[in-house]
Write a structure and sequence with these properties.
Layout (H helix, E strand, L loop, with lengths): L1 H10 L9 H10 L2 H13 L3 E8 L3 E8 L2 E11 L5 E3 L3 H5 L4 H9 L17 H5 L5 H8 L2 H19 L3 H32 L5
Antiparallel strand pairs: 1-2, 2-3, 3-4
């Protein structure tokens, strides 16, 4: 069964049926068959979405995305001009490894002609089994996320935090307390990683 799935993924050509055929065609070419079906679902869902507005920053643009006939629904998507990363607060990209419907709305608005490489998880691509040995989740995550992409995703997550922290003095104090605690933990992790790297290769310092 797995062999048949691999054959279908490598040589099959899906019939295009969504309104975003350019993305759908690319997805059919790069993703495995099972993951392509999930991508197609997100492309279909994009048809009900629309842009309510956006706010520009120095290197990003934050979009507010609404859904037809669901007035109370809204998602924030941060588009990074340099990497073309569209990071959504729904975090489907982080959880499943494929762009969400909200991200496709933003990519379309920004006239991005194809799914950016930084939004393609290596282990879901047809070329993964051909070009790479089997990987555990940690290894796959390292392949998928470059430093720039990680920074972009953290920046997107902090947009909501900034807004909520500004609502009240209590919220501000709680946010600052959490940020300070997290910063100390990350600094400790960074020092530990540096020490381990030095032990493996002392000539680099």
């Amino acid at each position: 069964m797995e062999g048949k799935d691999d054959f279908d993924s490598s040589y099959g050509s899906p019939v295009l049926c969504t309104h975003l055929r350019q993305y759908e065609q690319q997805a059919g070419e790069i993703y495995t068959k099972s993951m392509f079906e999930k991508v197609r679902t997100e492309l279909n869902k994009e048809g009900l979405l629309f842009i309510k507005g956006y706010v520009d920053d120095i290197s990003t643009r934050t979009y507010s995305i609404g859904e037809f006939r669901k007035a109370n629904k809204e998602w924030k998507v941060v588009f990074h001009h340099q990497t073309k990363l569209a990071a959504c607060q729904c975090q489907l990209l982080e959880r499943l490894g494929i762009p969400c419907s909200h991200s496709y709305t933003v990519l379309k608005a920004e006239d991005v002609q194809s799914i950016p490489e930084c939004m393609q998880l290596m282990r879901w691509l047809k070329t993964a089994k051909i070009n790479n040995p089997p990987q555990n989740d940690d290894q796959a995550e390292k392949v998928y996320m470059s430093k720039l992409v990680r920074i972009g995703l953290v920046n997107a997550a902090c947009k909501s935090l900034q807004y909520l922290a500004g609502n009240s003095l209590k919220a501000y104090k709680e946010a600052m307390k959490g940020i300070h605690s997290l910063t100390l933990r990350l600094q400790s992790m960074s020092l530990t990683t540096t020490e381990q790297d030095f032990e493996r290769n002392p000539d680099v310092i």
